[in-house]
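[step 3/7] fold_predict: job queued, chain A
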Amino acid sequence: MQNAGMLPEGHITFARLALALANDYESIYVVNTQNGSYAEYRPQSTKKELIVRAEGSDFFQDFQRDCTAVVHPEDQPKMMRIFSRERIFGTLGEGQSFSLHYRLMREGRPLFYCLKTIRGTGDDDRYIIIGVQNVDEQRRRESAAMAEYEIYSEITKALSRRYEVIYYVDLRNGHYLEFSASEKYAKLGVGVKGTDFFRDAQQNIQADIDPKDLQMMRQAMTRSYFQENLRESGTVSLNYRLILEGRPQYVTLFAMPAENDPDHVIIAVTNVDAAVRRELKLRAELGSVWDMASKDALTGVKNKHAYALAETELNNAIAAGKTPVFALAVCDVNGLKHVNDSKGHSAGDDYICCASQMIADVFPCSPVFRIGGDEFAVLVQGKDYDDRSELFRHLKEIASDNRRKGLVTVAAGLAAFDPEQDQCVQDVFERADRAMYDNKKTYRDHPESRA
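[step 4/7] structure written:
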């Protein structure tokens, strides 16, 4: 170590110790508290030695001068207030230290520095060591990390507010931790930790799950169900209704394995009641609009527009080679013109409604369409298709009985789709329509049912 000039050899050992504690300091000042004299040392990294860079007779006077010249203007008042002779000598006891962070201006840009002051003990108590360290890179990394942390923290807070409760479950033994951000969910009485998540879940769902979803949740809330679904798809998702605040509320449970520990699964439950109810309301409103657009205003059965859509759907299936199973019944109301001419159109409307109801009663599992003023079509399907011959015979029996009683009658024809001869729905319709006209001939000799 080079000679420190005016300072005795004793304090140099103290400076070397300070350097050993923080060998990345840019400068180390050794200040004599009795007269203010000082020496500035710079570590010589290649030789791990201290070399004298400057000396002076009044450290605090020089400090105030240098502070004004090189310290960032915003930090100058703090530095001058704290680093005065009275403040340092009056408050810094033997062996005590303090640190101060500030910014120095270098080439027009601020750099972060840390200044650490230590007062000696024993023979060295008249000296203070001041180490100056460039911490700019470290502070900027910390600032960037803090900014990134704050962003992640805000994201985490935003996401956590979405969930009523989050569980961290060990799939091996069922041990779990619960993190609940919702007061109303906490009222369910679930603890903050437990030894068997799936056992506790089975006990809780009896009281907490809407009865409509109880059976589903009993089957789903098992270790084997979670393990199987996590293995196959990587996630588990369940939609159900939970009794909260005395009423069923829609919630969604989502589970996925912990990123670095596949033996643990994170299970989050979010309340989606408001969103689901808005969606259900919108669907109901759209359904009402659709019903209005596809329903015959007079009879309440489907209208010609709805029949055209059904016909298109069936034609697409036929073209795709799916050979749908269906039949068409074409019905025409007998004697409507006679009723309109003799009793008025209001009576004629009632007559049409009676005919529509009769047809709908005969084919309870099939949609009925009013495709003209007095013409109806039935898309016979499902159980009605299986029983179509018997149902069609029953329709003719009702018409025959009504004919004797002077009530509404319909002429009808029935044809089933045959992939060997029918290329489209219209082919089936035409066969049924021809059969209907053949049936209608039996009514033409009766004036009371004349078309």
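[step 5/7] annotate
Residues 414 and 432 are 5 Å apart (CA to CA).
The chain has 16 helices and 16 strands.
exit 0
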